[in-house]
Amino acid sequence: MKELILKKAGETFLKYGFKSVTMDDIANDLGISKKTIYKHFKNKVELVDSAISYLHESMHKTVLIVCSKGFNAIQENFEIKKIFSELFKNSDNSPMYQLQKYYPETYAKIMKDEFAMFKNCILQNIEKGIFEGLYRKNLDKELTTKFYFSLMLSVHDTNLYTYNKNTINRLELKALEYHIRAIATLKGLKILEEQLEKNSVK
Length: 202
Known about the structure:
- The chain is mainly α.
- The protein has one domain: Tetracycline Repressor, domain 2, CATH 1.10.357.
- The protein is built from ten helices and no strands.
- The protein has helices at residues 2-16, 23-30, 34-40, 44-67, 73-87, 95-102, 104-132, 141-155, 165-183, 186-198.
- The model has no long low-confidence stretch (mean pLDDT 87).
């Protein structure tokens, strides 16, 4: 039951926002009493914290599965982007910036975990791309990772952009294109163009 609550709570928070969703909403969606939720989580703050951690772990597992499928480094980046697009496809607002505003401690923790996961994933992707001849050999891997993380994070900044699912999806795609163009070899650029054509956002 606890995992079911976490899954439903995570989906509901992402769709409607962390502030507006109540414990009653989640209980009603699951067809259970609010008391059942309180058996597992003492308050909404704890539920938000646990639900976000659950989503993060699930996403990490999915990313690892993608990385094990044998895509080349550039294809892999586009497949990982699809995971994030799928995760936020029903969001009507900017969930990460709502989290930052209303649950800053949870936000700080998840950003730390997110960067650790992101850093490891991107470093491995860069090393794979260099080995495959798709990325340049003389890259500063650490700096490249930080640049890309900051760029993707800024895409969801409601102070910079009016949040809209289609707009954010385009911005994420442009950020990925920008990242790869900055590090790719001529061979890599050819594959990038192929991926951009396949993944174009109308």
